[in-house]
Amino acid sequence: MAGSAVIEEQKFSLQEVLDTFKLCLSENQDVYVEHYVAGWRGLVKFMNSLGNVFTFISKDAVSKIQILVNFLNGENGSHYVTIQSMVKYELDNQLVDLDKRGSHPESGSRTLLRLHRALRWLELFLERLRTSTEDSKTSVMCADAYNESLSQHHPWLIRKAAGMAFCVLPGRPTFFEVMNVGGAERVVDMLGDAVPMISKVYQITEDLYAQNNLLELP
Fold first, then answer.
1. What phi-psi label fits residue 29: left (phi over 0), alpha (psi between -120 and 50 degrees) or beta?
2. In angstroms, rounded to a whole number, what is the distance separating the alpha carbons of residues 21 and 14?
3. Which residue, among 132, 103, 70, has the nearest Cα to 218 in the 3D structure?
4. How far is residue 51's CA from residue 31's CA, in Å, rounded to a whole number?
5. What is the reported pTM?
6. Terminal CA-CA length for the chain
7. How far from 130 is each of 123, 127, 185, CA to CA, in Å?
8. CB-based burial of residue 140 (10 Å sphere; 0-12 exposed, 13-18 middle, 19+ buried)?
């Protein structure tokens, strides 16, 4: 029984991701780090449920998640409750390497920026899945989403490996099955709720980083 409980816990659920991203935003549209991280844990499950194809991204995401959790649980955790408070605290106290890697290579702001960039890729890919047809190729959808977003921040070697990995992606029915919410129509409906929510969290973060000139942190 314990084993099956662990397996259930590791299974991806689109509903769970939707619920978590809904919790991300405060009334003032601040983004809670705790729920942002929880949403990312769900997205890591999504990537891992498709085998080793996305390992190059999911492994990095897991390490970034842990860094943020450590900040949240650390002695200055009260400053890391929201992305907005984290950015303000780190900038006010010169805890961010703005121009080149220095004494703060794993600042909360830099760490979250890496997740933020990957979130854009997943947002674009999930939206393509939502609007896809039975004949649509997941490899093309995923590659297009990657080339529009994350590839700009990866060196040539990783871009090459990513392109090869996308070629062996399973078909659309497998992706829909992995969502664990029912038939194709139900999946499309729920993606219609989840993608705008992810997009909203992404855009609020993007605007915050742009206002503070943090989008190109080394």
1. left
2. 11
3. 103
4. 30
5. 0.92
6. 47
7. 11, 5, 10
8. middle
Topology of 13-98+105-211 in CATH?
A: Glycolipid transfer protein, GLTP (1.10.3520)
Would the pLDDT of 11 be above 90?
Answer: no
Contacts for 17-23: CB closer than 8 Å, 24+ residues apart: 17/42, 17/43, 17/46, 17/194, 17/198, 18/190, 18/193, 18/194, 18/197, 21/194, 21/197, 21/198, 21/201, 22/197
Summarize pLDDT for 156-214 with one digit per residue, the tens: 998 998 899 899 999 999 999 999 999 999 999 999 999 999 999 999 999 999 999 99
DSSP 1: -
Sign of the CA dihedral with 146 first, then 14, 113, and 213 last: positive
Helix (H/G/I), strand (E/B), else coil: 32? strand
Residue 119 corresponds to which tokens in the numbers above?
Answer: 């979130």
Mapping DSSP to helix (H, G, I), strand (E, B) and coil, where does residue 89 land?
A: helix
**CB 40, CB 24: distance < 8 Å:** no
Positive or negative torsion for Cα 16, 14, 194, 106:
positive
- If you ran DSSP here, which 8-state letter would residue 155 be given? -
